[in-house]
Amino acid sequence: MGKLRELDAHPMARLLDVLRCELQTDGHEGGLRRGRIAGACSVLLNGELVNSCLVPVAQADGAEIETG
Questions:
Q1: Cα torsion for 19, 41, 51, 44, to the nearest 10°?
Q2: 49 three-state secondary structure
Q3: At 8, phi and psi to the nearest 5?
């Protein structure tokens, strides 16, 4: 089962960066920009597969996020 986390982040920060830096998760390639390597930064956001390098963290506010 996952953990409930709460944090302050700039609303337009990439979800990828927040997961890696603020929440210290691993397994996400930090060098990706603009979804060029499809799937390498994939997470489930409320059950939907998204590229975390393309999603602003504000879009994930209150969401359930599953990382690989």
A1: -70
A2: strand
A3: -100, 125
Give dist(CA 68, CA 59) in Å, integer: 19
Q: Virtual CA dihedral for 41, 42, 43, 47, nearest 10 degrees?
A: 160
Q: Of residues 68 and 11, which shows the higher confidence score?
A: 11
Beta bridge partners of 65: 45
Give me 21's structure tokens.
């830096």
Q: Which residue has the tokens 């997470």?
A: 43
| Pair of tokens at residue 20 | 């890696």
Is the pLDDT confidence value at 59 over 60? yes
Say what the pLDDT of residue 31 is: 47
